[in-house]
Amino acid sequence: MADAFTAKSFLVVDDFADMRSAIKGILISLGVTRIDQANNGKEAIAKLQNKHFDVILCDYNLGPGKDGQQVLEEARHRRLIGVDTIFIMITAENTREMVMGAVEYAPDSYLSKPFTKELLRTRLTKLFERKADLTKVNEALMAKDTAAAIRELDALIAAKPRNLGELLKLKSELCIDSSRLDEAMATLEQVLAIREMPWARLGIGKIQFQRKQYDQALETFRHLTEQEPNFIAAYDWLAKTQVAKRRFAEAEETLRLAVRLSPRGIQRQHTLGELALNNGHTEIAEGAYEQAVTLAKHSVLNHPALFAGLANSKSANGKYDEALKVTAEINKVFPDRPEASFYAASATALVKTRQGDKAGAEAALAEAEQVLAQLNETVHASEHALEMAKTYAGLGRADKATALLRQVIANNHDDDETLNRVVQLCQESGLDYDAETAIQEVQRDVVKTNNEGVRLIKQGEFEAAIQLLTQAANEMPGNKTINLNAAKAILMYMERRGVTEEGLRTVRCYIDRVQSLAPDDWRLADVNARLRKLTTTKG
Amino acid sequence: MDSLDFSDILASSIHDIKNSLSLILTNLEDLINNPDNHIANPRQASLLQHEARRANNNLIQLLTLYKLGQRQLAMRVTANNLADFLEEVVAENLSVCRTLDLELSCRCDPDLEGYFDLELVRGVLDSTIGNARRYARSQIEISADQEDDFLVIRVEDDGVGFPPALLNLLEYGTGRQGDSLNPGRTQLGLYFASRIAQLHRNGARQGRIQLRNGHHLPGGCFELWLP
């Protein structure tokens, strides 16, 4: 047993030196030899960047700067730690609600202080066992091969091990992420047949949501919030579904309740701010953005859009000077992010318009346009286009705003979330643009092109299919579906008629576009696998 | 930002106090386990250890009950293997029991699974074991079983058992236990345990606690029934 501990490397994070040496003492008495220490979040992140650790023991409370949850968040978000690293959060106050703020990033285990050597030994032994079983699953996940990870999980599940519940949970999550919804549903039903579990019920709702069965999803999430009033993720999903049903006022209500229960989620506060602003509840919006900006201060999730939202809501409340102070801060807080000056300028243009400073607003608008042109990107393009459209609308440039919105719709014809934001933006800005009809028109056109392409492929008319789809992809470079289908048409052509350099180059270009827009898009796995197969058989 | 939130003050004070307790406990353990140490009286050190742990359990209860009152307490029910969980509870309490010459043992089917909030139930068991330490002659046993579709976790000792008044108090109202057990009339520990039990629900069924004497061991037997 001592060997298991000797081989592992540990990182102890605590701002209190005596505490660090106490924990180190316990570890040494357990036979651990490789121990690093960090006395704050920044130092911890620096260590994680340079070295791989098997176990991280991190105190939640780290004094000023990042807290333990933010360290975990950043480590996972930036993939500084893999799924094979054990992250243990040490809490003293039993601060569940602090940790509950972030549902996406949960540690592998919690330890409450003070703990004894025996407890740590027992806990670590169990965690090592759990992670050891998952080695192959981890490897597959690291290689972004979800299908292989699920195969490994199935093999483990067949043996009905002690951590069956956990394996089923992981499997259901992976299936949902890779859009294997029937399998996910079967897995969750297997769990629910034994016992009602909130996470499993939430999974059912997510599947219904992905299948666009919004009424059923609404029912699932609503019921869940009634049964488990403290289960925050259920509120987030309920609000998301309400937005999908364009019930913006109800969505705001839901999130207002959720932030009362758990105020520490940055994304939740951000969404609430957006909704409240849209619904004309400018005070609520300002409060939510204020919270989001404060919470994000030391977080990897900090973003200029939060500041822009705060400035926007402050100016909606007539606090122009405060709003301009916020926009002035954007470039200071994000010196390394090229899009920061865009957000600063576009928000300034809005604030100055409301303030009645026409010349100032025009100057800021010109700057925003210039920075946006320089950004010249596809990454997050829709996000920036929406922000710009909001500013145009605020400055009375309805024509420019609608042109941008039309482009956003074309690039996201099947992405309900973005389309809802377009509808929301028109409402919020009082823009005279029939977004619903525009969406229907664009959807009809894109679906027609897409179907025609698929028909041509089926009939073996690859040249015609490729011509049609590549033209569409060039017109809508931000449209993931079109880009993926264009890539697929060329791949299928090459599978039958042989590989060409030109074909490979075009396919890679389309894949790169989608990759930069949505690195986690589950459809990427298929085209990447096909591309790999072609290039390996060729060489 | 500038308004002082009492729960934050409470949480941060408790954080500090627990840091201190943590250091006291770790150093005490070093003292007790160090064969070269001839200064401290091991019996005294054990007593200190025992009391420090009790103070720690009380702090957890205090904060938990405060949050419960403020409707800030969040349940995190997970599927837990009972053998693993009880093994941890025993591990954490073992050294104190040993120095008090008490045997702490555990009886459980290795495949038994249960659904409950791990940390809350751990708090209940730690404080119950802490209590049993004061009454046990030589033995404390914790066990878990599936009975009547409930999960029952028991903490027993071989002392004189609970006084009749306490046993009667819990005879009443399986549904309204919280009211009959107010913290003024009985010990905080039992009140805490009963509140935590009630927080556990499955469909229409709710958790509860029960006290009896002479179950497997001759002394007091605390039972936590979880649906």
UniProtKB/TrEMBL annotation, chain A:
<dbReference type="InterPro" id="IPR001789">
    <property type="entry name" value="Sig_transdc_resp-reg_receiver"/>
</dbReference>
<keyword id="KW-0802">TPR repeat</keyword>
<protein>
    <submittedName>
        <fullName>Response regulator</fullName>
    </submittedName>
</protein>
<feature type="domain" description="Response regulatory">
    <location>
        <begin position="9"/>
        <end position="128"/>
    </location>
</feature>
<dbReference type="InterPro" id="IPR011990">
    <property type="entry name" value="TPR-like_helical_dom_sf"/>
</dbReference>
<keyword id="KW-0597">Phosphoprotein</keyword>
<dbReference type="InterPro" id="IPR011006">
    <property type="entry name" value="CheY-like_superfamily"/>
</dbReference>
<keyword id="KW-0175">Coiled coil</keyword>
<dbReference type="InterPro" id="IPR052048">
    <property type="entry name" value="ST_Response_Regulator"/>
</dbReference>
<feature type="coiled-coil region">
    <location>
        <begin position="358"/>
        <end position="385"/>
    </location>
</feature>
<dbReference type="Pfam" id="PF00072">
    <property type="entry name" value="Response_reg"/>
</dbReference>
<dbReference type="GO" id="GO:0000160">
    <property type="term" value="P:phosphorelay signal transduction system"/>
</dbReference>
<dbReference type="Pfam" id="PF14559">
    <property type="entry name" value="TPR_19"/>
</dbReference>
<dbReference type="InterPro" id="IPR019734">
    <property type="entry name" value="TPR_rpt"/>
</dbReference>
<feature type="repeat" description="TPR">
    <location>
        <begin position="198"/>
        <end position="231"/>
    </location>
</feature>
<feature type="modified residue" description="4-aspartylphosphate">
    <location>
        <position position="59"/>
    </location>
</feature>
